[in-house]
Amino acid sequence: MSTEWLKNAVFYEIYPQSFQDSNADGIGDLQGIIARLDYVCDLGCNALWINPCYDSPFMDAGYDVRDYKKVAPRYGTNEDLYQLFEEAHKRGMHVLLDLVCGHTSDQHPWFRESCKAEPNEYSGRYVWTSNAFEGIEGKPYICGMAERNGAYMLNFFASQPALNYGWLNRTKPWMSAVDSPEALATREAIKDVMRFWMDRGCDGFRVDMADYLVKNDDDQRSATCAIWQDIRAMLDRDYPEAVLISEWSNPVQAINQAGFHMDFYLNHWGNGYNTLLRDYETEGGDHSYFKRDAGGDIRRFLREYLPRYEASRGNGYISLITCNHDTPRPARTLTADELKLAYAFLLTMPGVPFLYYGDEIGMRYLDVKTKEGGYQRTGTRTPMQWSRGRNLGFSEASEDQLYLPYDHSADAPCVADQACDENSLLAETRRLTALRHRYTNLQADADFEAIRAEADAPFVYRRGSLLLAVNPSSAPVSWTSDRLSGRHVAYSINAAEVLGDNLTLAPQSFAVIEA
Ligand code: NOJ
After folding, report:
1. Residue 83: which domain range?
2. Ligand 1 center to residue 143 CA distance, Å?
3. At 69, is the secondary structure helix, strand, or coil?
4. Gap from CA of 326 to ligand 1 centroid (Å)
5. Which of 11, 183, 318, 478 suits a disulfide with 351, CB 3.0-4.6 Å?
6. Which residue puts its alpha carbon closest to atom 5 of ligand 1?
7. CATH number reported for the structural domain that contains residue 126 in this entry
8. DSSP-derived secondary structure for 134-188
C-alpha cells in the first residue's frame, strides 16, 4: 500500500493566520510556514495539516471558501503554496490541505450564479427549496435574499450555503436524488478541486464535516459513505499516496464504510476523549485523567475507545489530537508536567497523532475577543510564541496590526526559552516524537492492548512487544507482574524502574519498558 507513510506519521496542525508572519502585515502566511519547516521537522512532525488557506471573505476563518483554487492573498500566492509542498517534500514531510466540501462562502461564484432567477449551470449546485416562502423543516435556511424564488439551506454559519449532494429520504419535490445530475455535478466539482491541488503537490486532505454531505441520510450515513468511497477510488487509482482524514469522529463509519484513511477522535459525541484532557465541562467537576489527583479514571476513555479501535483496526487509523482550532487548548487547565504525560500517552497510542501548533510549548487558551467567526474558539488561535522579541517573534508588524493579540503574560511560554531547557515541555515533546519514530512498535499499526486499567494508577498498556505505563498521580505507585521479568525501562518521564517482576513509578511519571 502506498499510504505506508502514515505508519510513521506525526502531524502538526497549522492555523496559517497565526503561525509566522513573513511580511510584517500582522498575519501569518505561507512563506512564514516555509521558514519554520525546519522547526516542525526538528520537532519530529513529518506531516502538516494546514487550515483553509483559500480565497475567502473570512466569515469563518476561511471555512467559507470563495475560490477553491486560489490561495488567499493574505497568505501569499499559489506559487508560494507549491513551494511549500516542494520544501516539505525535500524534508520528507507531507502536506494536507483542508477540503471544505459541504458548503462554500455565499460569495462563491457558484452561489452567486445559483441565486439568479434564470436557470443556469449552477442552479442545482446548492440546496434550494422551490419557493421563497417554503423553508426546510428542522434545518437552517435563508429566504428573501435572492432573486431566485426559493430558500437556501445553510450548512454552518449564515454565510455558508450547503452544497447539494442530494437527499437520501426525499420528502419534497425540490430535494435532489443522490444520483441526480446536479448532485453528481457537485461531487465532480469537488473531485476537480482535489485533483487541482493533488496535481500541484498536495498529499491529501483533511475533510471538513465529512459526514454531512447527503441530507436526510440514514443513521449509517450510507449515501454519504458511498460518495466518499467513490472519491477514495479516484485517489487510489490516480494518487495512490494521497490520504484523507475525516472530521467525522465515528471511526467505524468514516474508516470502514466511507473509506477514510484516518478519522479524528474529537471532543464530542461522547467518545471518551474529553475524559483525558478536558473533563471540566461535565457536571461534578474536572476529573480529567491527566490532571493530577483529580480522580480521573482511564476506564472512562477505554470503554468508548476500545470498541471503536477494535472495529476499525486494520482498515485505517484513529487520530488522537492534542487540540485543534475548534477546541480549548489543553494548557487551559493542565500544567506542563501534566501535559508531558498526556502527550506521552497520545504519542504512543495506535493510529496517527496530531499536535496542534503551540501545544508543544504549552501555549495557553487566551481570553480574547472573537475574530472571523471564532467566538470561544478564538482563544486557541492566537499567534505562535517563538521568542521573547517583538510580538513574541510572530510578526514584525506593529502590535495593533496583529491578527490576534499574543499572550502578554510575563511567563508566556516560548520556543526560544524551551529549546535550551532539557526539562521543558518542548524538549519532552521532541523526545517523545523521536521515541515514536525509533520503535516501529509505537507506530500507527502496531498492536495495542490495555493491560492494567483500574480506577487507580498505573495504567499499563502494550504496543507490540513494548510495555508502557503511566502514573498521573502525585504518589509513587508500583505494579507487579511476571510480564515484567527480564525487562528494563528504555524511556521514562521522571523515575521508573523495573526490578524483577516489579515496576515502580515516581509521582507523575511515564515509562516504556523493553524486553
Ligand atoms: C469544522 C471546522 O473545524 C470549523 O472550524 C468550521 O467552523 C466548521 N467545520 C464549518 O466549516
Report:
1. 4-101+182-440
2. 23
3. strand
4. 7
5. 318
6. 326
7. 3.90.400.10
8. ---TTS-EE-SSSSSSS-EEBSSSTT-BBB---BSS--STTSPBTTSHHHHHHHH
Helix and strand numbers, DSSP H then E, in the chain = 12, 20
Whether the CB-CB separation of 466 and 481 falls below 8 Å is answered with no
Neighbours of 304 (CB within 10 A): 17
DSSP string computed for 93-118: -EEEEEE--SB--TTSHHHHHHTSSS
Tell me whether residue 308 is in a domain.
yes
pLDDT tens string 357-415: 999 999 999 999 999 999 999 999 999 999 999 999 999 999 999 999 999 999 999 99
Cell of 175: 430535494
Distance, in Å, from the CA atom of 296 to the CA atom of 397, rounded to the nearest integer, reads 44
- Closest-lying ligand 1 atom to the alpha carbon of residue 63: 11
- Smallest Cα–Cα separation from 48: which of 33, 68, 29? 33
Rounded to two decimals, the pTM is: 0.98
Tell me the C-alpha distance between 48 and 50, whole Å: 6
**Cα 125 to ligand 1 centroid, rounded to whole Å:** 20
Do 132 and 208 fall within a single domain? no
Bridge partners, residue 470, by sequence: 459, 510
462-491, pLDDT tens digit by residue?
999 999 999 999 999 999 999 999 999 999
Return the DSSP state at 215. B
Q: Are residues 117 and 265 in the same domain?
A: no
From the CA of 97, how far away is ligand 1's center (Å)?
14
Ligand 1 pocket residue status of 63, Cβ below 6 Å:
yes
Is the separation of the CB atoms in 326 and 377 below 8 Å? yes
Same domain as 326, residue 212: yes
Are 200 and 128 part of one and the same domain?
no
396 lines ligand 1 (CB under 6 A): no
Domain end (from 133, 164, 195): 164
